Amino acid sequence: MRPVFRNAAPSILSLYGRASRSASTVVYDYHAYGGALLERLGEYCSYCEVALCGNAAIEHLAGKGFEPQFENAWNNLLLACTNCNSRKAVKGTSINLGDFLWPCDMRIDTSTAFRYRRVNGLVLVEPVAGTLATRAAATIALFGLNNVPAENDRRSSDRRVRNRTNTWDTAVTLADRYIQAGAATGGFDRRFPQLLAEQIKAIATTLGFWSVWMTVFEDRLYAADLPDPIVQGQLDRLFCDTFTGTLRGRLRVTQQLPYSGYTGLPVMTKAKS
Description:
By secondary structure, the chain is mostly helical. It has a domain at 160-251. It is built from nine helices and four strands. The chain has helices at 12-16, 34-41, 82-89, 131-143, 160-185, 191-207, 210-223, 228-240, 250-254; strands spanning 57-60, 77-80, 114-116, 123-125. Helix 5 (160-185) runs parallel beside helix 7 (210-223). The radius of gyration is 20 Å and the shape is globular. The two termini are 17 Å apart. It comes from Frankia umida. InterPro entries: HNH_nuc.
């Protein structure tokens, strides 16, 4: 799951324009943050990572029906596709945020908690110890990330697993070509590999599924016996720097928090670390 960073909440006046009124008189709701979320996180579902293509829903970590005090809280909002948003809502109960993993939680790199594999296009739990594995499994179940509609279910529009699998196959083809181009020209900094890199970034950001691209390219680059600094540098260059709002690699190390103690979650929520 792609770790993301929203940064501090935009000012209300910046959302509505500088009218002849003060921020204290502006009446707003969480929909006002939609543009800022898209700008800072990119047009991707925060959970399944599919490209939203104009179908973004503003998703409340703590459901607004159960935690109304967080309905308009910036740190309680992410972007979701209709499938992830509805799968979570269908639970119909209040949830403890600490029981799940959230891509905006600054204390955890969620990219290390999940494993992506081509077989069946499923999201798996990385074999990690303790509560992290339990929370990862609960997150997969909460959003139905591995939901595969029955063959005869013509009513379902849930194509997340199928699209994830198709993206995997595309990533494999491009990763192999990229490695071949680098080997043939003597490195990835040559003109042809650079042109191919630009095409890869364009295709990846169009399709979404950041974790698929990261997994495929990491596996392929290491299989080509490339040293770790080159592998990590290429992953940063191709995907971490390209997918807006991604907080991994060098960006995670250098990112300044909006304020001391910032976690990326609703301020009053007691989430497990």
